[in-house]
Automatic annotation (TrEMBL):
It comes from the Eukaryota. One of its GO terms (molecular function) is ethanolamine kinase activity. Keywords: DNA-directed RNA polymerase, Nucleus, Transcription. It comes from Paramicrosporidium saccamoebae. It holds the Pfam family SHS2_Rpb7-N. It is found in: Nucleus. One of its GO terms (cellular component) is nucleus. Its EC number is 2.7.1.82. Belongs to the choline/ethanolamine kinase family. Belongs to the eukaryotic RPB7/RPC8 RNA polymerase subunit family. This is ethanolamine kinase. Gene3D superfamilies: 3.90.1200.10, Nucleic acid-binding proteins, Phosphorylase Kinase, domain 1, RNA polymerase Rpb7-like, N-terminal domain. It is an enzyme of class 2 (transferase). GO terms for biological process: DNA-templated transcription; phosphatidylethanolamine biosynthetic process. Residues 77-130 form the RNA polymerase Rpb7-like N-terminal domain.
Length: 626
């Protein structure tokens, strides 16, 4: 079931999206709200973001602005010198590699640690160095930096415990506790409080308040106090980041200062986040830690069996200036709310959806895209969902997907997404996800009708052989690995008529992936959720779309040879799209409590895989012979 909520009687109808989570819509009208994003305090009033605000609320805005002591994202410059042997077609790749090696993990007095490079913004023309023949390039880039200040509260996940102290990942952060005793005989090793009521083990989360810092040329030091009442344990489902009340001093909760040493995490150690849903203990990359640390987290669970009351309670926490008595929730029985007006949305995660969707990656996508002005703001997180902003416009209909003018807008926007750099994305996620889902197919389903459809239509051994063949064939195409949306169905595309532009929403499947897959999956969605594949775009429809994409991505028109190669690449990846959503349906059929026939949908996608296989592989053979 799906719900929307309105304030002052404003709401609109809905359109279809892939069923997974529960979304609610809350309308804003002349209501002041605050939120933190990208290291800045932004302010919305009267349903939009602006600079004007009532004087009575100015103090509140300044209070939250002062809570953020530094901008975690900085635009910086670095000079890289390359030997002549690197001056070739792969020049930019060599420059990026050297930038990562030379910059990430370094420390300077102005910005602190440079934790992760998130974008290479510009590379100047090289200057030849006299007598040596080397070439120096000035590179401007955007990076995540860490420079905690006095009175700032930070969270860290304990990674290692030994007799010297415990070592936790903030940067990582090294802490030697003063009132805990090391227990070497414990498995795993731990620190135990003198009262024997608090234990610190690998995987636990600790919360610290910094009371002093010092930075030299290569290291950052800090003195911090531990808030004992806020130590998190290894069974905590998600990290608990600080909110406004944490920053207040409470004499009964502070212990004596402990020595802290902040150290960098190198780019090579940035961890892929595709399996976080299956980890007993959360493990965050540097980018995830610092990005999500800027988004308030409320320790609150929205109850699916009492959504309206739960969400009203949540609204009081996220937007304390709202008059919640004016909020009206409207239930929609068919689909997730997608038509966005002057609105904020509450999304409550679906049952067991973490087995399908990497929620930490989804939130990181939100903040990364918001920084690039490709998504609405993320206002707050709660235990089983999040609250986020809106994009004005109307969602695409299925006929809009093939409209010649509108489809050109989508092609160019996809290219913009594909040019976006997201740290930690060196490998395509496609086959890692497919194999994970394949291994998650159950031996049987508890619902008799579902099991019957499964037995009559699904052959696990055959699926395994086809997946192996698909991986071998598509990996050989060398499709570029880019940041992909991976779910561009009509309901996830918003048309802004006044701007004559489109925006994409819902980033839960977004990750580094093959270019060909993202485009192919979008083409498959021309068929709509009823899977009418007679609507799949013809060659004549695809070529203008691909040409618009190419020109936006590369800044020049494509040659006939390039367009033909891209056409073959994309159409081969349609097989992966059918396989992907087929496996998705098999896993969802076991866990989801949303009234949708996942098993029949999975069978439909696998049948289309079989129907498309011969045509797609013929394209590959024709391309090789030519």
């Amino acid at each position: 079931m799906y719900f929307a909520a309105r304030l002052a009687g404003l709401w609109h109808s809905v359109s279809v999206a892939r069923p997974c989570d529960i979304s609610l819509r809350i309308h804003l009208r002349s209501v002041g709200v605050w939120y933190r994003m990208d290291g800045l305090t932004r302010y919305g009033y009267g349903g939009g973001c602006g600079t004007a605000r009532p004087a009575r609320l100015e103090a509140q805005a300044n209070h939250y602005r002062n809570m953020i002591h530094c901008d975690y994202s900085k635009e910086l410059e670095h000079t890289i010198t390359l030997e002549p042997k690197f001056l070739g077609p792969q020049l930019r790749d060599h420059l990026r590699l050297q930038l990562y090696r030379q910059v990430e993990g370094t420390c300077n007095g102005r910005y602190g640690y440079i934790v992760a490079i998130v974008a290479v913004d510009h590379i100047d023309s090289g200057v030849v160095q006299d007598s040596f023949g080397s070439v120096a390039f000035a590179v401007r880039y955007t990076a995540v930096v860490l420079k905690p200040y006095k009175n700032e509260t930070v969270d860290a996940i304990v990674a290692t415990v030994n007799k010297m102290g415990f070592f936790a990942n903030l940067g990582p952060l090294q802490l030697i506790p003063g009132d805990f005793k090391f227990e070497p005989g414990s498995v795993p090793p731990c620190y135990m409080s003198e009262e024997q009521n608090v234990k610190i083990s690998p995987g636990d989360m600790v919360r610290l308040k910094i009371v002093g810092t010092r930075i030299d040329a290569t290291e950052m030091f800090a003195i911090g106090t531990r808030l004992v009442s806020n130590i998190q344990y290894s069974n905590t489902p998600t990290p608990q980041y600080s909110n406004a009340p944490i920053l207040q001093k409470h004499s009964n909760s502070l212990t004596k200062p402990n020595a802290l040493l902040l150290q960098p995490i190198m780019h090579e150690s940035l961890e892929s986040c595709s399996h976080l849903a299956h980890r007993k203990t959360p493990s965050l990359s540097a980018l995830e830690t610092f990005v999500l640390g800027k988004v308030p987290l409320h320790d609150y669970v929205v109850a699916h069996n009492d959504l309206m009351a739960s969400c009203k309670t949540l609204l009081c926490r996220v937007f304390p200036t709202w008059n919640v008595s004016q909020v009206e929730f409207v239930q929609f029985v068919k689909c997730i709310n997608k038509e966005l007006d002057t609105t904020v949305l509450i999304r409550a995660y679906g049952k067991k959806s973490e087995l399908i969707i990497d929620r930490m990656a989804e939130l990181t996508n939100f903040v990364t895209l918001s920084k690039a002005e490709l998504s609405p703001p993320l206002y707050a997180r709660f235990t089983n969902g999040f609250v986020y902003g809106y994009i004005e416009g109307r969602p695409f209909s299925v006929p809009d997907m093939s409209d010649p003018k509108l489809s050109q807008l989508v092609a160019r926007k996809v290219a913009v997404w594909h040019k976006l750099y997201r740290a930690g994305g060196k490998e395509a996620n496609l086959f890692r996800t497919l194999w994970k889902w394949f291994k998650g197919i159950p031996a049987s389903y508890p619902v008799k009708e579902t099991q019957s459809i499964f037995e009559q239509n699904v052959n696990i051994g055959y699926l395994k052989l086809e997946l192996e063949r698909l991986e071998l064939t598509l990996s050989a195409l060398k499709s570029p690995i880019v940041f992909c949306h991976n779910d561009l169905l009509s309901g996830n595309i918003i048309y802004e008529e006044e701007k004559n532009d489109v925006e994409f929403i819902d980033f839960e499947y977004g990750c580094s992936n093959y270019r060909g897959y993202d485009i192919a999956n979008h083409f498959c969605e021309f068929a709509g959720f009823q899977c009418d594949y007679s609507l799949y775009p013809t060659r004549e429809q695809q070529l203008p779309w691909l040409a618009a994409y190419w020109k936006q991505y590369y800044g020049r028109p494509a040659t006939d040879v390039e367009i033909e190669a891209l056409y073959v690449e994309v159409n081969l990846f349609t097989l992966a799209s059918h396989f992907y959503w087929g496996l998705w349906g098999l896993v969802q059929a076991l866990f989801s409590d949303i009234p949708f026939d996942y098993m029949s949908y999975a069978v439909m996608r696998f049948k289309q895989y079989e129907a498309s296989k011969k045509r797609c592989f013929n394209l590959l053979d024709t391309n090789k012979s030519s």
